[in-house]
Design goal:
Layout: H1 5-15, E1 18-22, E2 31-34, E3 37-39, H2 50-71, H3 79-92, H4 94-100, H5 108-114, H6 128-142, H7 156-167, H8 171-177, H9 179-182, H10 184-205
Antiparallel strand pairs: 1-2, 2-3
Helix pairs in contact: 1-3, 2-3, 3-4, 3-6, 7-10
């Protein structure tokens, strides 16, 4: 599963995009740039283009998607729940995702009940921006997934080929994932994920 356009828009809303390196909190070790990209590769006085900011976001999202897939593989997340947790992890980090799930022991209901507790800054004080973000992430987490009316209908073979293309996997991986064993319903689900993934990638590409 990959983050959808809804999840990306939520991240963009709260991260904002700045093309010159900055520190939201003076005591932070590294600088931040673009859509909240943070790390030792960002230096004081550094500037980037909007295209580069979008590239960094794409790369960062892949990392945080992987965190969520790994930490929440015991849950059957829907798209909105996945999006909300990627946004949460993008902001709070992998360690807090582990704590949010109580190291893979909390249910969907229990996770939703704890999301809003992560509303404090590095100084331990409650921040209004984090309160709003956690509230919106929780609302997305609990929101029912809408069916895609414009998802193109393909044959089973074409859907499998689309999955292979978007997820960049070969026939051996297809067999490993046991798509054929799981049947039509599972393939349809993966196909929808791929359609959503193509949409958000196009959205980011266009800024």
């Amino acid at each position: 599963m990959t983050i959808s356009e809804n999840g990306i828009n939520l991240i963009k809303k709260y991260e904002g995009c700045r093309l010159t390196a900055y520190k939201p909190v003076a005591s932070e070790k590294y600088w931040t740039i673009g859509w909240g990209h943070y790390g030792e590769d960002v230096k004081k006085g550094m500037t980037i283009t909007q295209d580069r900011a979008n590239e960094l976001l794409r790369a960062d999202l892949m990392t945080f998607e992987a965190y969520v897939r790994k930490q929440c593989n015991y849950l059957n997340l829907n798209q909105n729940q996945f999006d909300a947790l990627v946004s949460f992890t993008y902001n709070c980090g992998q360690g807090n995702l582990i704590r949010l799930t109580a190291n893979k022991t909390r249910s969907i209901k229990e996770i939703s009940a704890h999301i809003e507790a992560y509303n404090k800054g590095a100084n331990g004080l409650v921040l209004a921006g984090l309160v709003r973000r956690r509230k919106e992430e929780k609302e997305l987490f609990l929101k029912e997934v809408e069916k895609m009316a414009d998802m193109p209908e393909l044959s089973l073979v074409d859907k499998i080929n689309k999955i292979k293309q978007v997820m960049n996997i070969d026939d051996n991986t297809i067999q490993y994932n046991k798509f054929y064993k799981y049947g039509v319903e599972y393939i349809d689900k993966q196909y929808k994920v791929c359609v959503d993934a193509e949409k958000w990638r196009e959205h980011i590409k266009n800024g």
